[in-house]
Amino acid sequence: MRRSVGLTRTMFRPPTDYYCEAVDPVDEQLCALIAKRKDVSGNNPGFPGVDRIAAWCERYGLNEQMIWHVYNQLYHEDRFQPPPVPTGFRRFVPIVKFVKLDGLLYAVTHMKQYANASVVNIEVSLGDDEEETVEIAHARMDLSLGPAYTCWQESGCGGSKGMHYGFTVAPPLPDDVAAVEFSLQITPFPDMPARPRVSLKAAVVVIK
């Protein structure tokens, strides 16, 4: 399961104060159908194919892109579950797991063990053989540890040569993670257009 920090109820604000009361029973039925969908599928409904969504939208006169996003939100429901606050610190566990791929080194360096969760640290850095001018572009990271665990990205920082990510995992991982496979799904952010740079000249600047 994958999860990034989502919205809590207190953070959400409706885009408008207007509501058509006539659609209240319809909206309640939508909620009931979503709950029924989860129940019928054993909470594992998957994702309808593109052709199926296109056929439904044509039949009911709906916007295909909008419906695709609706199913995408349903598929990633776990993203909206609030992360647990790690409590009851137990131990610090060093981890030596890494893989090199396309000139980048992905490493699970350590985790902190709590009574109710684990906090896993993952680093992404450039390999030693990369040129000095090469930089790491920013991307979204989603951690997956299988259906038994839910992962939340809680932190991310770094620079052009390396990035550090912190993930909260619940329930807690075992202290021995030798048999655990850490799977990262990487979603690159769109490239930003290069901005013109102004070079500073050697000078003494006095500000009065």
Overview in brief:
The protein has 208 residues and is α+β, with helices and mostly antiparallel strands. The chain has helices spanning 24-40, 50-60, 64-75, and strands at 89-101, 104-114, 118-126, 139-144, 150-158, 162-170, 183-188.
Description:
The protein has three helices and seven strands, in the order H-H-H-E-E-E-E-E-E-E. The chain is of the alpha+beta class and 208 residues long. It folds into two domains: 21-80, no CATH class; 89-188, Immunoglobulin-like. A five-stranded antiparallel β-sheet has the order 1-2-3-6-5, with no helix packed on it. The longest helix is centred in the N-terminal third of the chain and has 17 residues, at 24-40. The model is unreliable at 1-10 (pLDDT under 50).
User: What is the number of helices?
Assistant: 3
Separation, N- and C-terminal Cα atoms: 58 Å
Shape: extended
**Tally of individual domains:** 2
* Poorly predicted spans: 1-10
SSE string: HHHEEEEEEE
What class do helices, strands and sheet pairing give?
alpha+beta
Question: Main β-sheet, in a few words?
Answer: 5 strands, antiparallel
Q: What's the CATH architecture of the largest domain?
A: Sandwich
- Calculate Rg over CA atoms: 23 Å
CATH topology of the largest domain: Immunoglobulin-like
Largest sheet: spatial strand order: 1-2-3-6-5
